[in-house]
Fold this sequence. Notes:
The complex is a heterodimer of chains A (114) and B (115). Chain A has 114 residues and is mainly β. Chain A has strands at 5-7, 10-13, 19-24, 32-37, 44-49, 55-58, 61-65, 71-76, 85-91, 103-104, 108-112.
Amino acid sequence: GQQLNQSPQSMFIQEGEDVSMNCTSSSIFNTWLWYKQDPGEGPVLLIALYKAGELTSNGRLTAQFGITRKDSFLNISASIPSDVGIYFCAGPPRYMDSNYQLIWGAGTKLIIKP
Amino acid sequence: DAGVTQSPTHLIKTRGQQVTLRCSPISGHKSVSWYQQVLGQGPQFIFQYYEKEERGRGNFPDRFSARQFPNYSSELNVNALLLGDSALYLCASRSFWGASYNEQFFGPGTRLTVL
């Protein structure tokens, strides 16, 4: 099935470093969602974006809805050990009849170096 | 309040068998969606049910079917299992049809292994 292009696939970072990841699509999206999934659990919504150009923060996390509506970015500042996990972007593309049928990226795995 | 619950947690089946996965949404939630998450990939949408009616279907073969009961719980059935059906099956519940994504919550999933 179709997926969003998410990069990087994985990141090794030092505690305290800032993290950036992005998500792109060939289709226009009206909504961009960022989720985090921990092992053995379902995804948890971190940030939802509804407007092109929108910049939204949730604690140390900041996400942006790209102007072209075909991309989105997630930044994590001053990473801590509990940030470890897999981050997914998702959204309902405009061409879908139902806006509840989300399309997902393959995820960015965040690993903190010991 | 309890979150979304799914059963069983893990399941091992052999090719050709049939499997039924269960989901109990958050109390008061009327919409349930099912997703398949193959290892190393993001979830793929399978079905959405609202008020016991199918409201959406992803690109999956007819071997996949689902239903929603009067108490809003849901079952996902997969017939004639293939090795490629091995995945984490996620259930998500949402309070009502127009609810925002902030009001959609995922269960922990059922890990299905097909041998």
